[in-house]
Amino acid sequence: MKGKCLCGAVTITTSQLNEVAACHCGMCRRWGSGPFMTLHGGPDVKVQGTVKAYRSSDWAERVFCPECGTHLYYHLLPVNDHILSAGLFDDDNAFLFKRQIFIDKKPGHYDFANDTEKLTEAQVFAQLS
Questions:
Q1: How far apart, in whole angstroms, are the C-alpha atoms of residue 3 and residue 72?
Q2: What is the pLDDT of residue 128?
Q3: Would you say 36 and 28 are in contact if contact means Cβ atoms under 8 Å apart?
Q4: Cα 123 from Cα 113, distance rounded (Å)
Q5: With helix as H, strand as E and coil as C, how does the chain read?
Q6: pLDDT for res 77
Q7: Which structural domain range is residue 118 located in?
């Protein structure tokens, strides 16, 4: 799969992915004014172009295009895991919305109709430890 930022200065290449997740944590919502719709890219992601990273916690950084500002990925540093923005990829008709995380942090002004797995903040951090 190949994705790109809004201006095309950054391209992301990864294996074929199709499971989309939404993160409702406060940082993701502040970063993009809504849930962060993602694909789990893992460690084997190739990035071409110049990117800018913001260290948002002790364990992760948020990476974006310095030219157009497109949110590219959330980078989980201890395991070199790339949580990619689903909007980077054109072939999104094959995507399946499977999971919502930090569901206990989701504000009341939006809801998804999809039947997804829903994990709380505590459940997410339990999986990471």
A1: 9
A2: 77
A3: yes
A4: 22
A5: CEEECCCCCCEEECCCCCEEEEECCHHHHHHHCCCEEEEEEECCCEEECCCEEEECCCCEEEEECCCCCCEEEEEEHHHCEEEEEHHHECCHHHCEEEEEECHHHCCCCCCCCCCCEEECHHHHHHHHC
A6: 95
A7: 2-128
The whole-number mean pLDDT for each consecutive block of 10 residues of the chain, a chain of 129 residues, reads 97 94 97 96 96 96 98 96 96 91 97 97 89
Question: What is the per-residue pLDDT for 92?
Answer: 76
The CATH number given to whatever domain includes residue 31 is 2.170.150.70
Q: How many domains does the chain have?
A: 1
Angle at 102 between CA 97 and CA 104, to 5 degrees: 115
Looking at residue 93, what is its pLDDT? 84
Handedness of CA 74, 125, 79, 89 (dihedral sign): negative
Amino acid identity of residue 40, one-letter, is H
